[in-house]
Amino acid sequence: MRVPESWLRSFASPDWTSEQIADRLTMSGLEVEETAAAAPPFHGVVVGQVRSVARHPNADKLSVCEVDVGDGNARTIVCGAPNVVAGMRVPCALPGAELPGGFAIKPVTMRGVESQGMLCSARELGLSEDHAGLLALEGDATPGADLRGVLGLDEAVYTLKLTPNLAHCMS
Question: 31-42: buried (b, 16+ CB within 10 Å) or exposed (e) per residue?
């Protein structure tokens, strides 16, 4: 069973470190198999707000998006996601970003249009297996904010091994 530290701290929040919490859970009979961050490591991904969407002039399934990443300059990003619409806030990997698996982002030209980044799905960020479209973020996420901070992806998540005599811990 996976349990985020923030959920445990919503019930009781002692002045213990994540390691001390893991140790005390193990000593109380709940074996902590692993403590890891909520998401795999990646960097250079910020919140982007899609300002406009137009069909790609040389491809049927691609869109050309103007994206605000909080620096005052709209970036042109070519996107193949079917759910991209103007106004939505999405994860945007900027040139120089590195996604899970060592995938490095750099400016590329896609069928004659330069793309200055990548709009990301949950699967591309290692957050889930959903690859149906872009990961839509809450409307109050500030463009340019670091995605790991906005979504709390550096939070400790404990993997607990529950024994048959502690089935009550599942509820």
Answer: ebeeeeebbeeb
pLDDT reported for residue 13? 84
Q: Which two tokens stand for residue 15?
A: 């002045």
DSSP helix/strand/coil, 170: helix
**Selection from 127, 138, 153 nearest residue 49 by Cα:** 138
pLDDT tens digits for range 88-132: 999 999 999 999 989 999 999 999 999 999 999 999 999 988 888
Both structure tokens of 155: 């939070």
Residue 41, classed as helix, strand or coil, is coil
Q: Give the residue among 135, 132, 104 at the shortest CA–CA distance from 119.
A: 135
Alpha-carbon span 125 to 44, nearest angstrom: 11
Cα dist. 83→33, 54, 61, 133 in Å? 38, 13, 12, 6
- SS3 call for 71: coil
Burial string for 49-77 (b: 16+ CB within 10 Å, else e) reads bbeebeebeeeeebbbbebbbeeeeebeb
Cut 0.70: pTM above it: yes
Q: Would you state the structure tokens that stand for residue 133, as one six-digit string?
A: 């479209």
* Contact between residue 65 and residue 80 where contact means Cβ atoms under 8 Å apart: no
